[in-house]
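User: structure tokens for Gibberellin-regulated protein 2-like, please.
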Amino acid sequence: MARLRYQLVLLLIIVCLTTYELHVHAADGVKVGEGVVKIDCDGRCKGRCSKSSRTKLCLRACNSCCSRCNCVPPGTAGNHHLCPCYASITTRGGRLKCP
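Assistant: Done. Predicted tokens:
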């Protein structure tokens, strides 16, 4: 009987620690769907648009694309191949929407 209690307490401690670790690692983003973590679009887009001459316009477009794709290519320009969804969004005129 004492051994069973010991095993249950040990199991409870393991479950609590695992839950805590998952909660700590998911603190960077909000869980979306099954195991997908939403990225920080504001932070990534600020970096992406930091050298743009029209910062507000760039941020608006970037945040729109990021919210759809959950991805922003690294750097201030280019690297669209690293985020295919981001690279495929176009305006009504057929131009690339995402900076």
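User: Anything notable?

Assistant: Residues 24-32 have pLDDT under 50 and may be disordered.
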